[in-house]
Design a protein that fits this description.
This protein is α+β, with helices and mostly antiparallel strands. The protein has helices spanning 15-30, 59-65, 69-77; strands at 2-9, 35-42, 49-56, 87-92. It has a 4-stranded antiparallel sheet. The chain is globular.
Length: 94
């Protein structure tokens, strides 16, 4: 199993727009073969920090996800809501 944590820092006042923007991406990704979980969370301190937590059956399933049309569409378009590039960490289950 592979886990991915993508940390984003959103611009002030952009949380609702970003969540709405990501709604379709999340729904489409959850339908992919090999996707166990794909969900967006916000920091409890309200600092504009959100994380996408992804669980994939295999690294190959994650690689296929990154080649989908919806991934390629949503990845660059979401930049208007963010203060900079994301911090991305990939983990393998022990």
């Amino acid at each position: 199993m592979v886990a991915v944590v993508v940390k984003e820092n959103l611009k002030d006042g952009q949380k609702a727009a970003f969540v709405e923007y990501m709604r379709e991406m999340i729904a489409l990704t959850k339908q992919e073969d090999g996707c166990i979980a794909y969900d967006l969370y916000e920091s409890v301190d309200g600092a504009g920090e959100v994380v996408m937590v992804e669980l994939w059956e295999t690294k190959e399933a994650l690689d296929r996800h990154m080649e989908t049309d919806h991934f390629k569409k949503f990845l660059p378009g979401g930049e208007v809501y963010k203060n900079g590039p994301p911090e991305i960490k990939v983990f393998e289950k022990l």
